[in-house]
Amino acid sequence: MKILIAEDEVISRRILEKTLAEWGYEVVSTTNGTDAWQALQACDAPRLAILDWIMPGMDGIDIIRRVRSIRSPDPPYLIILTFMEGSRNIVNALEAGANDYVSKPFDHEELKARIRVGERMLELQHKLMSYNEDLEKEVAARTADLWEAKDAAEAGNRAKTAFIANMSHEVRTPLNAIIGFSEVLIDGLAGELNVKQKEYSGEILEAGRRILQLFLNVLDFAKIESGDMRLRNSNFMLRQLLVSSMQTVEEEARRRGIPLTLDMAMDADIRICADSDKLGRTLSCLLDNAVKFTPDGGGGVRISAKPVRYGGETASCRLPSGEPFPAGNASGAWNLLEISVADNGIGIKREDIGRLFTPFTQLDEPDTKRFKGAGLGLALAKKLVELHGGCICAKSEFGSGSTFTFVIPVGLESCDAWRGGRKGRV
Ligand SMILES: Nc1ncnc2c1ncn2[C@@H]1O[C@H](COP(=O)(O)OP(=O)(O)OP(=O)(O)O)[C@@H](O)[C@H]1O
Ligand SMILES: [Mg+2]
């Protein structure tokens, strides 16, 4: 290994040159700080330097400071030679960036040991540098892979969106024809039908509506999962939304002898700011279940709504953390709206409540399946409620009926004053 000696005092320099040469080191010797600094700048500069503290021109500490000011991944190992007694000086030298020190007159064995330590440190430093280089190459390769994967995922996402848009059009068009023309047939607009023809047309109409409903649920679910669904808030009368949601199951309920009732608290007959389409879809999912899982001629389905005002009673649903829902703000710009759909149907066993909102979960055994559906309605309802920044929960007694309740924050003033949704709420 090549070692630089910077020492202006002749005798010390000669001893150092001779000793290091005897130990087998290649020696570069300088008599002042300026030459030493230049030697350290050379292409094949020595990796270890023994620098006298006091020298003409530039002293040892100046050289150390200069070397350390250059950011190098593989800096030289610097030992300062000092006559100056006292730990304060040693501390100063180490703080300036010296790796080690040797006091003059130096002890040969001590100097040898300190040079060996320097060699080992340089070896470790070199290893660390090549590990770092390997690591950087690895990181660069992985980053390139990630960019590639991201590009592929984005291309896949674009293809999926185009596919969904295309499918949506291709499936809805024939379904609209099936639904529309079977309605035309049932209404006798294409001539009177006999009883059997009317019955079969009714079956076609119902099957078409079910496929459309399933298709819309799958589309919406995929849209929410991919983060493409946004709230579109507007001002509307809550009563209007509840009434039109009930109309989606009215025919089925009437046919099966299940009464539907709307129970609105006086102070719930209000104008709110929320996404009426998504609230309507949520209500339809719950009402569809309530009617479906109530036996013919059963007790009935009741939809109720009430606001939960700031400082008043707490909401029935809790946040996923288990905390009570914070009910509105003192200014009254928003409050919670609590809507429940209750039935006196078949009910749900206590142990099944926890898995109701998992997509494609149905409690009916597959081989004895009595009820139609894909098991997506409640999962979709939950996603839509959460998109509003709300929560949904179920209570039930097996054999007696179930109540599904959801709570969402809604604006009570105009939509301008209410941003809505998860972000706007807090
Ligand atoms: N009101 C209810 N009474 C009793 N069981 C219910 C009720 N609502 C939901 N369930 C149970 O939860 C399951 C999941 O409901 P979900 O609405 O997600 O699916 P589905 O109604 O079976 O099918 P889909 O809604 O996709 O047409 C149902 O299959 C049923 O077993
Ligand atoms: Mg359902």
Structure commentary:
The chain is built from 10 helices and 12 strands. The chain is α/β, with parallel strands linked by helices and 426 residues long. The chain has 2 domains: 2-106, Response regulator (Rossmann fold); 232-425, Heat Shock Protein 90 (2-Layer Sandwich). The strands form 3 sheets. Strands 2-1-3-4-5 form a 5-stranded parallel sheet, sandwiched between helices. Strands 7-9-10-12-11 form a 5-stranded mixed sheet, covered by helices on one side. The protein has a two-stranded antiparallel ribbon with strand order 6-8. β1 (2-6), α1 and β2 (26-30) form a beta-alpha-beta unit. α2 (33-41) packs parallel to α3 (60-69) and α7 (238-255) runs parallel beside α8. It is elongated, with a radius of gyration of 41 Å. The chain starts with a strand and ends with a helix. The site of magnesium ion (MG) has 5 residues, from α8.
Q: Over the alpha carbons, how many angstroms does the gyration radius reach?
A: 41 Å
- Beta-strand proportion: 15-25%
What's the CATH superfamily of the largest domain, by name? Histidine kinase-like ATPase, C-terminal domain
Q: Whole-number average pLDDT?
A: 88
Number of strands: 12
Class by helix and strand content?
A: alpha/beta
CATH topology of the largest domain: Heat Shock Protein 90
| SSE run | EHEHEHEHEHHEHEEHEEHEEH
Largest sheet: 5 strands, parallel
What is the spatial order of strands in the main beta sheet?
2-1-3-4-5
Low-pLDDT residue spans: 421-426
Unique ligands: adenosine-5'-triphosphate, magnesium ion
Taking the alpha carbons of the first and last residues, their distance comes to 66 Å
Q: How many domains is the backbone divided into?
A: 2
Tally of DSSP helical segments: 10
CATH architectural category of the largest domain: 2-Layer Sandwich
Percent of residues in helices:
40-55%
- The CATH first-level class of the largest domain comes to Alpha Beta
Q: What global shape is seen? A: elongated
